[in-house]
Fold Tripartite ATP-independent transporter solute receptor, DctP family.
Amino acid sequence: MPFKTIPTLIAAGCLTIASASASFATETLKWAHVYETGSSYHQVAEWAADEVAKLTDGRVEIKVFAASTLGKEVEINEGLGIGSVDVIYTGPSFVERYYGPIAISDYPFIMRGYDHWLSYRGSDLFAELSEGYKDATGNHVLGLVYYGQRHVTSNKPILKPADMEGLKIRVPNSPVMLMFPNAVGANPTPMAFSEVYLALQQGVVDAQENPLPTIQFKKFYEVQSNINLTGHILNSLLIIASDDALSRVGDDAGVVRDILEQAAMKVSEEIYQSELDLVAWFREQGITVNEVDKGPFQDAVRPMLTGDSVPYTMDHFRRLGEL
């Protein structure tokens, strides 16, 4: 072999190796959320990350960041736009800032229960609202997650709206969450999720509201003696990915979409079952769990659901009610 061809062959070999390396390069997506590592939300996100890695032969890696390590909920929503995160769990009430109608499912007493939620999840209405959010932001809704019915915890029984008058209650920092406490004369105090336990412990706030699985994994029952089953909101989460993230994974975007949709249903089923089991569990821990007549609370809120301040249309309201 002529000597002068050796450098040429070496160069060609290097290009081949570089090309092969590029074809097997891993694209890493950051999935951020505010929930603890022990929660079903985090554990199912880790399951999804494993599935995506397996089905893409390692071409797509999802790294899950729990417990607000990449920001509180407002910040991770903003992060989708600036590229600091790629995928998030977030409540429709936080997404309301970007596209109001998609928050409809989080308004007080608007959802009738888990079966109604399932109907909404598979409906044309939810598909339209998801598309409206995409048009407004460029981000993609990949799944709706059941978060559970929100109940008020406190250090006294809450059995009627009058029991909440003047009550300083922590709520998430989103407009929809103010409706219920305002309707019953409470004093809503927006606060980041990560700050709630200490605020309850130190008496900065008197109460908070969350579903039973959240009350358990955040250990709010350690610093509140009563769980009052107001069920005033049936809450959801959205799994959202940025357009940039889906573009970066190229042909593997279909796998990511499919697995994250599966993850949404998987965690929903776990949370719903947990919700069914937890009343007895809390009572075993010595916590007072109070059954509540929801009627007077619903009466207090009802006029607000069709008022001028809601972000959804009356057509949205009617269609959701007919599901």
